[in-house]
């Protein structure tokens, strides 16, 4: 997709999006209950599942070069929304259209292997993110430098702290030159110095008209960084609009429901 084409259209379109999960009913704790459960299966009866709608009728679009915040209490569907946009989860109804290359910075170490070294993980993760081998080699030193892990390049990943692993994932993702960043609380991991480094990098990306969707509990960060914000509660979109207005609405909502 040419850059000019991207500028003419919404980069992300979320239309009537629904996503549900099935939660199995409580675990059977005694041997008798387990036997009863097995007999039920033999008789053709199934265990009961509770359906849980994580997202319900979500509609919004993100324009080229916009930074969008996603806020809401725990369990409101924020991470699920990012995973659907990233095509990690499929919706039950509705659709998501994303134009351009996506870098999802979601869970800690997705795509990493604990028994490989830091350098080997960079190569594997870089290729998952669409970089050619030659590009990975060329950018290896800047990835290690950004994550401050040059000294650990030959260490196995499992010997690194979770914060170090997150820094590594973050550093590889930003080197893949995507059109769209999906970030889920990634900035909360790591020390203040690394967080500041990330913020500076994202300001740079904003200047380059990258599209950014940021899930965060840090309302000041969302206000500083995002022009518009989505407010989710219990899977529903309460509002979508200018960040200051939406954050104020969220703060009132949280106050009322405490």
In the predicted model, the low-confidence regions spanning at least 5 consecutive residues are none
For the terminal residues, how far apart are their CA atoms? 47 Å
The global form is globular
Q: Write the element-wise H/E pattern from the N-terminal end onward.
A: HEHEEHEEHHHEHEHEEH
Tell me how many strands there are.
Answer: 9
Order of strands across the main sheet? 5-6-7-3-8-9
| Average residue-wise pLDDT | 84
Q: Estimate percent helicity.
A: 25-40%
Using the CA coordinates, give the radius of gyration: 21 Å
- Strand percentage lies at 25-35%
Question: Keywords for this structure?
Answer:
258 residues; six-stranded mixed sheet; three-stranded antiparallel sheet; 39% helix; globular
Question: How would you summarize this macromolecular structure in one to three sentences?
Answer:
With 258 residues, the protein is α/β, with parallel strands linked by helices. It has 9 helices and 9 strands. The strands form 2 sheets. A 6-stranded mixed beta sheet has the order 5-6-7-3-8-9, with helices on both faces. A 3-stranded antiparallel beta sheet has the order 2-1-4, covered by helices on one side.
